[in-house]
## 1
Amino acid sequence: MSTEEDLPQHIAIIMDGNGRWAKSRGKPRHTGHRAGVKATRAIVEAAAERGVRALTLFAFSSENWSRPEEEVSSLMSLFFEVLQREVEILDKNNIRVRFVGAREQLSDRLQKKLAAAEAQTAGNDGMELALAVAYGGRWDIVNAVRQLSERVAAGELRSEDINDELFADSLSLAGMPPLDLLIRTGGEQRISNFLLWDMAYSELYFTPTLWPDFGAPQLDEALEFYAGRQRRFGRTGEQVDAPA
Ligand code: FPP
């Protein structure tokens, strides 16, 4: 029987493998991305049902701009279409949406949609869903450094007062619970410039399952893996096991 402590409060997912899923069926890549959207919907629903507090999804990285122009523009249209269709449903399910990434790099039309989705769901207090679009972990850290150094330059802050907590408050995921579990689908075992700061103590779960095939049963396998981990945060196993 799993306890509340066994459930990660915050999960992040690198949703990889849409292209290979399509290729293995002799279909174009965009078919894989459309199948990926279906998987995304199922996972958002399953995570909320299981009581996960926050879910962060890597939808488009800073590096994905270098994909063929046709794929980039088809992904951007897909994001717009998905927002158009799904925000109402997310809102009805009490989910709060936040976008993280260099949003000024996106079209005005998409930026407006993102802002509208955030505004519409801002009052919700169910699961928080962060969608990373044009996001990079290094970008996030550099951004935080810039914000803090501007405050130091303005005399609002002393550099010696900068600590972990203040730094985390300047990152995109500020205010969200610590990242407990990172899942990557599609077989690669790398971080690909995702949440570099946030995953300092996350458990890492890699699965060969391609993103369109990742559903509620596969999420449950990842949750089982997480529940079986002993989280030591730098302490020894004996210290963790000792009664308080
Ligand atoms: C990885 O597959 C996926 C992406 C580049 C991002 C697109 C994600 C979706 C369309 C899912 C839906 C997301 C939202 C928020 C609506 P890949 O193309 O890297 O696959 P490959 O490694 O097999 O080529």
## 2
Amino acid sequence: MNSIIKDISLAPSGHDKINWVKNFMPVMASIEKEFSVSKPFAGQRLSITIHLEAKTAYMAEVFKNAGAEVVVTGSNPLSTQDDVAAALVERGVTVFAKHACTDEEYNEYLNKAIDFEPTLVIDDGGDIISLIHTKRRDAIPKILGASEETTTGVNRLRGLESRGELVFPVVAANDAYCKYLFDNRYGTGQSTWEGIMRATNLVVAGKNVVIAGYGWCGKGAAMRAKGLGANVIVTEVDPIKAIEAVFDGFRVMPMKDAAKVGDIFLTVTGNKDVITAEHYPLMKSGAILANAGHFDVEVNIPQLENLSVSRKTVRANVEEFLQKDGRKIYLLAQGRLVNLASGDGHPAEIMDLSFAVQFFSIAYILHNHAKLEKKVHLIPADVSKEIAEIKLAAIGVAIDELTDEQKEYLNS
Ligand code: NAD
Ligand code: SAH
């Protein structure tokens, strides 16, 4: 199949970006070394739908070297990097992705990745798996199974499973220790602030930062905001998470109170309508709104637009919404994932772990699909332990080992 990308001549800087991240992904490098020889994916056709930037490109290359034929599409129109897409094509992977593509094009690319007749699928957010379950059921017979990268995608899959509609086994890669503990927490923690700072070029210290949602991503974002010197306020709907935030040292309050004092708002709930028309009139002039949750529905943008006299782009990835009373409210990255739209997403060292989990999740499907029920599965916890061991060795960190006496004592 012919790739659809912006411009193949952009490849040189894409190669530079991929080569840079490879230096910091030792677990993926060791996987590549081992499986380029045994080629466990020979004869398999893998469709990957994940943010198309350098780390994803390297993962695609590792799967290709492990024997698979690989097609990649982006999982968000704003996170695709056209130079990386071009470099990936030069490295022998078929790509359907363009930065800032329209919704129609995005849909066309997903369909192309299904026309490829994959036997295995990696998804990020559930878009391609849901298309296969609805309009593209023709692809089902050839698919052995899939794996899913993120919380919202896993929630969507569990919905399909509970209605008895899931048509192949899926691994919840997100739910592996070596994924959510590091990617959602430390990855989102760092990359959202990188995205917000790149977009605004403003100081975070001393500002009231409101984090909506104190799940794995919210905890990381709050922790890093505190480190940057912000006064952090958390909003939650879950009483346990709210107590956790209190004992982590943060103020907790409802959004209608936080709206009055916040300087920067970051939604990371996986829910919709977290910031709405109820809140915009309460906000200070200059309030900045950003989202790092899955969809662009956490900040209700149509309601903000309705209340505004004008909407205009004032910097790359910053839109100003002028209110009738003269206040200005700024929205970053169109309310889409700020870390990927206005940055390169999570750092390489983090995606090293997430994508090692993806590799073993898809390998798990390949080896076990015949006996796996059409459900959402977890990969065995030992896989995360192995990944962590390789990572520790690579970064030169040694740990103690249990003695036989200690094992016996713990089991007694
Ligand atoms: P999580 O389930 O651990 O946490 C979500 C939290 O939001 C929960 O504590 C929940 O109680 C809270 N919440 C729900 N509705 C709320 C509301 N109206 N107001 C306040 N709090 C509310 O999920 P997570 O792993 O932290 O993921 C959150 C979202 O971020 C998901 O959509 C996930 O797919 C996405 N995600 C993004 C990135 C990224 O790179 N930007 C990385 C990983 C996950
Ligand atoms: N399709 C969704 C994406 C969910 S984003 C959307 O844009 O609407 C959440 C996932 O992005 C996380 O689980 C994380 O693993 C992944 N991610 C974060 N940084 C990344 C990066 N640099 N490269 C590839 N994926 C990344």
## 3
Amino acid sequence: MTDSQAMTATQNAIRVRFAPSPTGKLHVGGARTAIYNWAFARANDGVFILRIDDTDPTRSTEENTQIILRAMRWLGLDWDEGPDVGGPFGPYRQADRVARYKEAAEKLVEEGKAYYCFCTPEELEAGRKRAHEAKEEFQGYNGACRKLDPAEAKARVAAGEPHTIRIKVPEGRGDVVVDDAVHGQVTFNAKELDDFIIFRSDDTPTYNFATVVDDADMRITHVIRGDDHLSNTPRQVIVYEALKKPVPTFAHISMILGEDGKKLSKRHGATSVEEYQQESYESEAFVNYLALLGWSFDDKTTIIPRDVLAREFSLNRVSKNPATFDSKKLNWINEQYLLAMTDEEFAEKILGPQLVLAGKEEEGCISLRPEWFALLASVIKPRTKIAGDVVSLTEFLYKGDAPEIEEKAFNKMLAKESAKPSLVAALSALQTLEDKASGFYADAINDALAPLPEELDISRGAFYGAIRVALTGTLVSPPMGEMIELLGCKSTCARIEAALEKIETTA
Ligand code: GLU
């Protein structure tokens, strides 16, 4: 594409990229960087690019690339240009762009802005040691090959001599000042910048070079990334200047720390997006939580759905202080997203998929019994913290006609003398109710059972406790009327009869 075509394609739009290295899964910090880039693009009608930084062939894998793409899709972060979707500045995998980096590096050599370096690793090490021992202020590369005659250097390269390519930091360049959108003005001492390597002797580009060539080629206007890259920025500025390309705006976002104040790592629990997905967090809640880890909408809003984020995100509300990952807050936000669903939505999005996954229900179960599932949703939703909880919360439904009864529950509730009359009376009341035309619904069930403890002169606790244990085999259950309605008369009666039998045989 020519420059003028590219100009038309970009139309001065904001263009940002997320550039993960597929050396591992997408972790929480990377996900937050991706979210900020995506939201910044969306809020500004810009373009969001996904680029795979896989120049390190020993540590990058296709499997990790696929895991990252899947995680991005689960997070709902769609990209306008990148792998799978293509775009005008592709390819979008660095491994496919090595020839382009080589061409750019050779051009800099031609222009006298970079040079071949033949210093061996031993020579470089000796130089570093000397400078260190002499406590010299400048301990970087001494520029030995800078002075070589270019024609002679070229001949040595042609003869196959191992070499790297180094960029020339212009003499008298002065300090590099980066105007960071998060950190403000950051000044880097020019004395600490040596002529750094842009191409290694194994013919691979260094990160600082490949990144800048790509960011320039892809017309990136804002580089939003973790502040572990802030220290790379002055070198990247030198590369932009050598390439005669405009320097983008940088925004370096803070680290995410664990609750102990240390950098978030495996020790703190789940760190990859994939793990949160497997633990059945809501993707929108997860994005909401991560977005707030270092950015705020105002000083109080905690629920920011993805579409609001995509409208409201701005760099000037990004904090430069490290953020602390607080799983309790994440869980709370997740719960709010679940509670905000209607019963029908909860059935469709949470109950159905989770119960099918757990092998308890068949695909399409919701459409066969929508009302039953809506009732189940109304009972289970307030008790659900993450989607996967519904499997244990609904376990009582899938225990067959004679649930196994926990010993503790049996001893506490069914070993009492009052248990048998309670169950017999409940059984008869429920069967009578089933025969009536009014129907077997929670309210009617509660009404039918309510007078019985007094009639039997048994405490409510003992009466309902016996039914609960008979129906679930445990001491805890959802509210009685709803539970019995969900089980249906046939199963409820069968369970009560099985419990009565157990009482007989145990007596
Ligand atoms: N591949 C680099 C990383 O994952 C990208 C850094 C950048 O955004 O420049 O850290």
## 4
Amino acid sequence: MQILDGKALAKKIELKVTNGVKVLKEKTGRVPGLAVVLVGHDPASQAYVGMKKKACDRAGFYSVTHEMPEDISQETIENTITMMNNNPSLDGILIQLPLPAQIDTTKLLELVAPNKDVDGFHPFNVGRLTTGLDGFVPCTPLGVMELLKEYSIDVKGKNAVVVGASNIVGKPMASLLLNADATVEICHIFTDDLKKHTLNADIVLVGVGVINLIKEDMVKEGAIIIDIGINRAESGKLVGDVDFDGVSKKCSYITPVPGGVGPMTIAMLLSNTLKAAKENTK
Ligand code: GUN
């Protein structure tokens, strides 16, 4: 069994991006700019945004975080996004999700200029991903593909079972795997007999937020296990959706939590923002 070390690869990518920022600055006199919208006081969202900001600083980006109160109006956020769309110092705009119930998230995501949509959540970029065209790809599934590539794992012809059908993780993950010629199944909350599906998988990718959802008896010998879950256990420890101790005895590769997919998400945000900056300064 081999651990897929996302922390190490994220560091490597961050260094590459940092170099890319220096080159861009020499060529154009500007650095990539990222704006983050954070609404309310959700501790997990605050923690993620904090990590994103620190990573931007390390890479030499210009970054700004717009913190807004929980009871903010739709109109105020829309005006802020329009301002960001028109601000030439900004190459990327990220709206940290989830948003409070009074906000129409879909409408906001559609308002972000597609060429600044570094999260890849705008329908324009979603469409480009599903048709196999270049565009912005959501950071977490993109990070998973980079991690597989780093360990020379080719998904072509493999049975990939994605557990979770969110717009942020499951659906783009499935598109990327399909684009890479895997045979893809998407399981979700209404899937009957999850084990029947996962037992047939050469690769299991799970991101639903349920501790120990994937157990040893649900995976086949030698499977590749990608744990995209992040949960806080009762002990306070961060854990994924996979019973690591049990499953790691049986699989060929596995991502740990923490230190697997999580750091890759941030590295890909940097990479997407540098890509946006390069394209926006052409
Ligand atoms: N909330 C959970 N994951 C993400 C992500 O990748 N991007 C944004 N914007 N919000 C999230």
